[in-house]
Specification:
It is built from three helices and six strands, in the order αααββββββ.
Length: about 150
């Protein structure tokens, strides 16, 4: 919070000098935070961002999950993982890692899926069933969630 006044002035100055043809989106105050940790900014890991952008590119990212797009886009870097995700009607797992009888992934979910068992399909056609954890809010996006696989 101590760097907020300088960051605000920097963003105002940069936006005043910004060429809207070259950079369509205005600068944000958070773009000029020098000392804030990346973890404190709630930006997802780069692997989740890369997987999400690839899902969008191949037109497999559900519209209801676009609320998480902005943060995922900011975090995206590097190559996407081989397994991009598992997608269901009201829940998706981004960049999942299946280890034995559980899966670890970024969960993007609607309230209707909380504490339910859902069948999810990957873009390559693989199908799994998981028990979706209970989250807070109508929509949720949480990283590194471990869920049990259901037979």
């Amino acid at each position: 919070m101590m760097e907020a006044p300088i960051s605000l002035l920097s963003s105002l100055f940069a936006n005043n000098s910004r060429d809207p043809k070259k950079k369509r989106e205005p600068f944000k105050m958070s773009d000029f935070f020098l000392y804030q940790n990346r973890e404190d900014m709630n930006i997802p890991s780069s692997v989740y961002g890369a997987a999400a952008l690839e899902l969008i590119r191949i037109k497999k990212f559900p519209q209801w999950a676009l609320f998480a797009y902005k943060d995922l886009k900011v975090s995206a870097s590097g190559l996407p993982p081989q397994l991009l995700g598992f997608i269901g009607e009201d829940v998706m797992l981004v960049a999942p890692l299946i280890e034995g009888d559980q899966v670890k992934a970024m969960v993007i979910a609607q309230e209707s899926s909380y504490d339910q068992i859902r069948e999810l399909t990957s873009p390559c056609g693989r199908v799994i069933k998981v028990h979706v954890p209970k989250c807070s809010g109508k929509y949720a996006a949480e990283e590194n969630v471990i869920m049990p696989l259901v037979d």
